[in-house]
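pinging the channel bc i need a second pair of eyes. not urgent but kinda urgent?? the chain im working w is below, pasted from the shared doc
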Amino acid sequence: MNKFVLPGEVVAQGSYRGWSNLLRIGNNYIALFVGEVEQAGLRLRLIRYSGPYMPKAGDRVIGMVTDIQPLSLTIDINSYVDGYIMANSIFRRRIDASKVDLSKVANIGDLVLAKVQLTERGKDVLLVPERNWKISGDATVTISPAKASYMLRQKDGLLQRLRKHVRDLLVGANGVIVIRGEGEGLERVKAALNAINMAKGLTDIDKVVKEVLEVG
């Protein structure tokens, strides 16, 4: 079971080959954020409960179009950097720049589904749109990216339990969730997602979801 830690707390001692979100002083590894510590062999990492999304190649994210340039779209991905989608990846072919008008295929405020292709520290993130890349829903909820990733990793049907109450549920690794549904089911799933975001730790998520969904 992962250990809940606070900033400044010594979470481990010894020598590890890799660590993240931790400060090493001598043989001590000190937490820099509120979160949970996960150990895998000689690697140690702190899973943050809060803070912006940290892009990772291969992640599927949900973002919002914030700017339209002649050959690219700028996407807010709930991170410290923006994402961008190149025009050729939208049309999936080589294009003539003089004949492209991305304002005809996207609008400011559109929600998009894309995969992180390339990341470089401190620079904007290259995204590749999914085949059905423009999405819409009846509600959008943003939760901690760490908790969204936990939901995506679970094999016990957490997402399936939520989807039983709505038509569909799209979860981005960046913490943005789009819900398609209506009525009591929609409100119950929104309440469950808000409860997930308020949960103290990752191990509490299944419990709070069960409590919210079983009310009434």
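so The chain has three domains: 3-48, 60-135, 139-213. and Residues 183-198 form the longest helix (16 residues). — does that match what u expected or am i reading it wrong
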